[in-house]
Amino acid sequence: MAPKRISRRRFLGDGALAVGAAGLAAREAMAAEPKMPPKSQILSFDERMEYRRCGKTDQWVSAISLGGHWKRIPYRGDDFQKNRTETVAQCLDSGINYIDACCRAEVLAYTKAVKALGRRKQMYMGFSHCGNEPRNRKFRTKKALLGTLDGLMKEAGLDYVDIWRPTCHEPGGMHTFNTSREIAAAGEAAVKQGKVRFFGISSHDRRWHEMMIREFPILSVVLFPYTARSKEKPKDSIFQTVRDKDIGVFGIKPFASNSIFKSRTSAPDDTHRAADDKSARMALRYILCNDAITAPIPGLIFPHHVDNCLKAIEERRKEDIAVRPAILDDAEFAQMADGMFNDLPPDYQWLKNWEWV
Fold first, then answer.
1. Which of the residues 130, 264, 296, 310 has an alpha carbon 20 to 30 A from that of 187?
2. Per-residue pLDDT reduced to its tens digit, 94-127
3. Residue 194 and residue 160 in contact, taking contact as beta carbons nearer than 8 Å
């Protein structure tokens, strides 16, 4: 991703710059940024969406993308798949061009959705089989990991994977350095064989992420938590390493296991829908203030959640593309973020460790 802040011009397109010293400084800053390619070269481009360069992959990804989890979906069977297909269609029609699938069920559901729509080549797909990857001691060798990749690709009918990002132990430091080398070797082999375009990892351990980025150039992408309470550390932040090594970052848990919401159903007719939609927009706007993050990847349950993402981008354009983004001074946002940590479920208290990143 870009080593400097994303400029207003790159976000909004060609526009008038302020005259004088401020305008000159802005033009100089823009000259050092990677140039956005023609719109025709960006998958599923839509003027309403923002796009960011995903590090050294050099792919331009929608600044809000689709996370694989579906904790609040009230459907089963055919109705479930219908919901996933409708939501993916709405994503594609709204300029969202990346899906991150973390486990076997997610890979199968989303692969089926994009194929049913006939739009596989319009969507980047992140790929993981968390149960058969390094979290499981049986899958900590190059051979075992490549077997996992091949097996699920075959089951899903995939000819290639855009981003293979194995789900690794939390904390990642529980992996030995030999395990880390096996993970990287599997990624190198998969890319060399043409099965995988780009390789990355997902973990909840900052120090392990930093070590992997420094030691293994095959890594192009990392996934780690970033919530409405997360902040970049003034010193020794992982984002220093990310920027130095030009690594794409997808922020997981943007809604902190849904603890920012008043409703647990997320249904379109829920009485809390307006308040919950606003909380989602505030969280996404806040996360996007960090230009080192390629995209947060929320689990979007209904098509109207996709519309809400576009509204978040619209609000960001109006209020946050400035020296001091408005969301940072919003009292309602601050109250929501504080309440989020207070409402974390017991098994997600660890997210508090990601307040300073």
1. 296
2. 999 999 999 999 999 999 999 999 999 999 999 9
3. yes
